[in-house]
Amino acid sequence: MSEAALVITEDDPVLESDFAIEMVRQMRAIDTYGTYDDWHVSKILEPFVLTKEMKREIPIVGDPDEIVMARVKAFYHGIATMIEKECGLMAVPLLNLSHEGFGRVIITVGKLLVMDKTLRDVHRFGFPSLSKMKDEADKLLSVALEIIGKHSDVAGM
Amino acid sequence: MSEAALVITEDDPVLESDFAIEMVRQMRAIDTYGTYDDWHVSKILEPFVLTKEMKREIPIVGDPDEIVMARVKAFYHGIATMIEKECGLMAVPLLNLSHEGFGRVIITVGKLLVMDKTLRDVHRFGFPSLSKMKDEADKLLSVALEIIGKHSDVAGM
Question: Of A111, B10, B90, B150, most Cβ neighbours within 10 A?
Answer without folding.
Answer: A111
